């Protein structure tokens, strides 16, 4: 399927939910903030819109007909790079972890405050477009990143936001790309959870946050030959994480 994407002057939000009242409510609040809103009432309809339109962020319900939210997110991550926020009444830990593991960037429980949803959308868009503008992610960096960063068998293409591992392309989500850009910008350096969170998410770190661990685990699933025995992205017990590079091979 070819994706014919045309960028709009204002951000476009896709609201995918089979409940008409929720879609209309979110449309009302989003249009007040001058967003362009597209509506989908099934996962299949949402996927069709994503394949034809430029969408800056997707709000996705889990329980949708034809193609559920989890299946939709998996397809999005195979083809597209955009922030995805789950908005769902399925609030169990398994549902949240599954959604995040598939590539969602945030999870909002129903019932929700529309004002909070708008605030979360603004936060995700801010992070995403700061990344695309070439904002340095390594603390202290004052130059935009080169078109490519090479660390042994890993090549990170910053223009395509694509990883090449021993020449083989690996598709990355926005946060996975940001994490890998941070580590590959300083191979061998140990980054604490706080440093990682504040560099990648660009907001204060909370000590009880599991967000960094979840994203590290997701990145390892794509980066490592065996995620249970990582050779690229190493945990330094009690300190944090580092990209362990030694010559052309890893540990």
TrEMBL record:
Residues 145-245 form the OmpR/PhoB-type domain. Keywords: DNA-binding, Phosphoprotein, Transcription, Transcription regulation, Two-component regulatory system. The modification 4-aspartylphosphate is found at residue 61. The keyword Transcription applies. Residues 12-125 form the Response regulatory domain. InterPro entries: CheY-like_superfamily, OmpR/PhoB-type_DNA-bd, Sig_transdc_resp-reg_C-effctor, Sig_transdc_resp-reg_receiver, WalR-like, WH-like_DNA-bd_sf. SMART domains: REC, Trans_reg_C. Residues 145-245 bind DNA. Pfam families: Response_reg, Trans_reg_C. Signal peptide: none annotated. This is Response regulator. The lineage of its organism: Bacteria, Bacillati, Bacillota, Bacilli, Bacillales.
């Amino acid at each position: 399927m070819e994706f014919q994407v045309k960028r709009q002057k204002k951000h476009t939000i896709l609201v995918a939910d089979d409940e008409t009242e929720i879609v209309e409510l979110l449309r009302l609040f989003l249009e007040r903030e001058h967003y362009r809103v597209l509506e989908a009432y099934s996962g299949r309809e949402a996927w069709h819109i994503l394949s034809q339109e430029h969408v800056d962020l997707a709000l996705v319900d889990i329980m949708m007909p034809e193609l559920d939210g989890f299946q939709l997110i998996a397809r999005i991550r195979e083809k597209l790079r955009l922030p995805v926020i789950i908005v769902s009444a399925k609030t169990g830990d398994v549902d949240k972890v599954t959604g995040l593991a598939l590539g969602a960037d945030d999870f909002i429980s129903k019932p929700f405050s529309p004002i909070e949803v708008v605030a979360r959308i603004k936060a995700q868009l801010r992070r995403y477009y700061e990344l695309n503008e070439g904002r340095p992610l390594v603390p202290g960096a004052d130059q935009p990143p080169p078109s490519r960063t090479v660390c042994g068998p890993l090549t990170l293409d910053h223009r395509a936001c694509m990883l090449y591992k021993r020449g083989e392309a690996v598709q990355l989500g926005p946060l996975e790309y940001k994490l890998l850009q941070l580590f590959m910008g300083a191979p061998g350096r140990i980054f604490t959870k706080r440093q990682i969170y504040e560099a990648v998410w660009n907001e204060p770190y909370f000590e009880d946050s599991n967000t960094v661990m979840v994203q590290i685990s997701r990145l390892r699933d794509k980066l490592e030959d065996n995620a249970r025995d990582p050779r690229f992205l190493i945990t330094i017990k009690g300190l944090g994480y580092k990209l362990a590079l030694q010559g052309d091979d890893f540990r």
